[in-house]
Amino acid sequence: MTALYGAAATGITLPEALEAARLDGGCALLTAPSAYRLARAAGRGCVTPTGPADLSAVYEARVFTAHVELRWVEAGYAVLLTEDASLLPGAFGEPLDALDVVTTIETRYLVWGTATTSTPGWAMLASARVGALAVPMAAAPETGRIRLAVREYVVADKAHGNAYVAEERLIGFEPYPLEGAAR
Description:
Layout: E1 3-10, H1 14-21, E2 27-31, E3 36-42, E4 45-48, E5 51-52, E6 60-64, E7 68-73, E8 77-82, E9 94-100, E10 103-110, E11 114-119, E12 122-127, E13 131-136, E14 145-156, E15 163-176
Antiparallel strand pairs: 1-8, 1-9, 2-3, 2-6, 3-4, 4-5, 6-7, 7-8, 10-14, 11-12, 12-13, 14-15
């Protein structure tokens, strides 16, 4: 049976959380009042194809690899989620109750735009509605679309037995070819 483990930290800045979580190379979704950015985690910061990302205005971040997800909010609260408890760092000293999972559901979300170009480690998407978007990917598609892979964790209510999705964890970006796109 799968379990989802978590640990929290309070009074922590985003750079401190990034460093403690050791997510170098992971994908980062950064929310600021003026922009929503995709970046790649690098030590105590994040980088975009044009250079370091300004984290000073970020009020919410989700940073993830295939095995771990970090969630951080401006109030100085961070949570790390993983299926491997050994990946939880000591700096996240507030253990969360493990979720005993009945099953997992692999889900995908289509990202706006069509792949236009790529540079090492990045795919460029473009659409008339959203504009250009750089997505951190190891193997970027030359054409087609990109989707975000997510794992949902289903648990059963102990009192009534009803099953529900209790949590989700971002896994990574993956190519999604235009041919045979229906799924």
